[in-house]
Amino acid sequence: MNWANTGCSSELPDHPAESYYEWQKTEDGKKIPNYLYSENDPLLGFAALYEWWADPSLAEDDPERWLLVAHC
């Protein structure tokens, strides 16, 4: 897809972290936290995709024209 023709652009930033939690749901609906980390590396890398969308109803120089949408 050519982002220039759709009015949006996307980026893939890297977010470092030492660890994170994932939640496991049990049959009775309770959530159990699982602490995850690397035994070999001090940091983990996460990516988050986001896009900037231009509102076509606003002028090109309007500072409110751009909307940031994050996809996690």
Description:
The protein is mainly beta and 72 residues long. The protein has one domain. The protein is built from one helix and seven strands, in the order H-E-E-E-E-E-E-E. The strands form three sheets. Strands 1-6-7 form a three-stranded antiparallel beta sheet. The longest helix is centred in the first third of the chain and has 4 residues, at 3-6. The protein is elongated and about 50 Å long. The two termini are 20 Å apart. The model is unreliable at 1-9 (pLDDT under 50).
Strand order of the largest sheet: 1-6-7
| Structural category | mainly beta
Name the average pLDDT. Answer: 79
Distance between the termini: 20 Å
Q: How would you describe the shape?
A: elongated
- Tell me what portion of residues adopts beta-strand conformation: over 45%
Estimated helix fraction:
under 10%
- Number of E-state strands: 7
Number of helices: 1
In total, how many domains does the architecture comprise?
Answer: 1
Secondary-structure element series: HEEEEEEE
For the largest beta-sheet, the strand count, sense and barrel status come to:
3 strands, antiparallel
Instruction: Give the low-pLDDT segments.
Output: 1-9
Q: Using only CA atoms, what is the Rg?
A: 19 Å
